[in-house]
Amino acid sequence: MAVIMTKSVALDLSAxxxxxxxxxxxxxxRLSGMPDDRAMLRAAAELTRDLHTPKPLIYWSxxxxxxxxxxxxxxxxILAPAPLVAVLGAIVAILALYRAGLFIHELTHVKHAQxxxxxxxxxALVGVPLLLPSFMYEGxxxxxxxxxRYGTDQDPEYLPLALMKPWTxxxxxxxxxxxxxxxxxxxxxxxxxxxxxxxLRTIVVARYSGLQINPKFERRAPEGExxxxxxxxxxxxxxxxxxxxxxxxxxxxxxxxxxxxxGVVAGVAVINQVRTLVAHLxxxxxxxxxxxxxxxxxxxxxxxxFLPYLWAPVGLRYHALHHLLPGVPYHSLSEAHRRLAGxxxxxxxxxxxxxxxxxxxxxxLAANTMKVRSAG
Length: 376
Fold this sequence. Notes:
With about 375 residues, this protein is mainly alpha-helical. It has 16 helices and two strands. The protein has a domain at about 150-375.
């Protein structure tokens, strides 16, 4: 992909209720070499000391309810004779399973001793049935938060999308539609074959074992506890994938039901990919950034409203705040935001990462890629 590098990054925050007015689109703020906002970092640490403990009841009830609603929607989509009811069931399934699936993000940050058996429960109810085991995120996502890796070519979850050509955005979304097919191939075909070929196994581990968007990133082989978790999760997913395909080929699972399952998983992947588009501004040129610069390259959408709870659930509408405080559980992020927004002056960097809408962020990203085309 052709990438045009620029020397600065634009920040355009739109005025909205509860959101600090933004500078005009023409205003430029250099991220490279930006010093840290010490007052913001100090306030973030001091004002949220009591918010770092996850509440198991909230996690379990939210996750289980989301999963059950999702599978109920999937059952309706498969069994309903009326097309409209089936479509509504599929929509419910996509949104609910999307929410349940996003708890994989919490798994990478929470201390497992504080949420006993949650990883196992998540993998059993969602990770294996959707072929998204937690090992594909654990050990990968933590690198995205590494101080010297964020936004560089060593970050598995970063691409300078705003500095790429316009066609990269639709390609980025189209790829997600193929996710369920790719996952079936990964676990039903590549996993068994890789047991017979050490060379193929090396490739599978490095290239096809992480939920990453950076094509340059290669994963290292797992060690310690993660190696054990990886083995059992991959085995479970392989057996599920092989069993599902065998059931389809033998007629036990009707093609229609299989197609709906694939469509729901694809829908979950597409919504997540859209959310990923607006999780950051994607304007870093590949250089290591300070914590403040990383925060400003990330996005909060704190404006009250129903839609953010659908497209950025489980605390992900506070994605910039999460980069500032990755140890705060999702159910405490809104309170952390309330405290920081009230305590910090308008001149603080904290207010400059708050945006009003998803659509505005998508338009911003698309407009930046158009500038790259003009420059090219």
